[in-house]
Amino acid sequence: MRGLWILVVLSLISGCASAASFGRLETGKIISIEGMPAICLPDDANEDFPVGWITLSESYGSASWGLVVREGARPLVLAPGKCIRYGVELDEYESPAYQARVPILKLQVNRTYVFAINSAAQPRDSYRGVFCVSEDGDGSRRYLQYFRLSNGSEITPSCDEKEHERAH
Questions:
Q1: CA distance 56 to 17
Q2: Which residues have a Cβ under 8 Å from the Cβ of 167 and sit 6 or more positions away?
Q3: Of 23, 58, 57, 26, nearest in space to 41 by CA
Q4: Tens of each residue's pLDDT in the chain, 168 residues
Q5: How many CB atoms lie within 10 A of CB 16?
Q6: For residue 105, what is the DSSP state?
Q7: C-alpha angle with apex 110: 41 to 128, nearest 5 degrees?
Q8: Within a 10 A sphere around the Cβ of 141, how many other Cβ atoms?
Q9: Is the distance from CB of 58 to CB of 109 less than 8 angstroms?
């Protein structure tokens, strides 16, 4: 399992290139399902994606949540446009061993998170989405995604904690 954690970290820091020595890193779409963030394969993804593990972690902290496919189990296969919701429980998956050593992840307003899914077939291939949590006046939450533009610049959502610090 230690090797699995290292692969997760490497996949998250490998950048946004669609092909790299660390594998293929694609941008997943972040949406809300039942009031929780979910990561989806793009509608135009070229193929189904067998999910080996799922992680959601704080961008600037150590708290995280994750699931890894059990030894010998059949992984969930996502078709283009399909999603996995944060906090979901799947019979074929279990929490990774590292999870017991990190704080429990509680999503907070104005904080940034990284949601990733990695392939069961090609463990270095992944989809990743970065988002922050915004809260409307009625208390409902929205999950606003960061986007990298082709010129290298980034669209930063208004709920970014670091952005708030710079404004004050």
A1: 20
A2: none
A3: 26
A4: 333 333 333 344 344 344 445 788 999 999 999 999 999 999 999 999 999 999 999 987 777 899 999 999 999 999 999 999 999 989 999 988 766 666 678 899 999 999 999 999 998 999 999 999 999 889 899 999 998 888 888 888 888 766 555 554
A5: 13
A6: P
A7: 20
A8: 15
A9: no
Is 31:83 a contact under the CB 8 Å cutoff?
A: yes
Q: Which residues, 6 or more positions from 77, have their beta carbon under 8 angstroms from its beta carbon?
A: 48, 49, 50, 51
H/E segment holding residue 92: none
| CA 6/CA 148 separation, integer angstroms | 25
- What is the C-alpha to C-alpha distance for residues 131 and 59, in angstroms, rounded to an integer? 9
Write out the E strands in 12-155: 25-27, 29-33, 36-40, 49-58, 64-69, 77-78, 83-85, 93-94, 112-119, 126-135, 141-145, 147-148, 154-155
* Distance in angstroms (rounded) separating the CA atoms of residues 125 and 18: 9
Task: Judge if pTM exceeds 0.90.
Answer: no
Which amino acid type is present at position 13?
I
Cβ density class 63-93: b for 16+ within 10 Å, e for less: bbbbbbbeeeeebbebeeeebbbbeeeeeeb
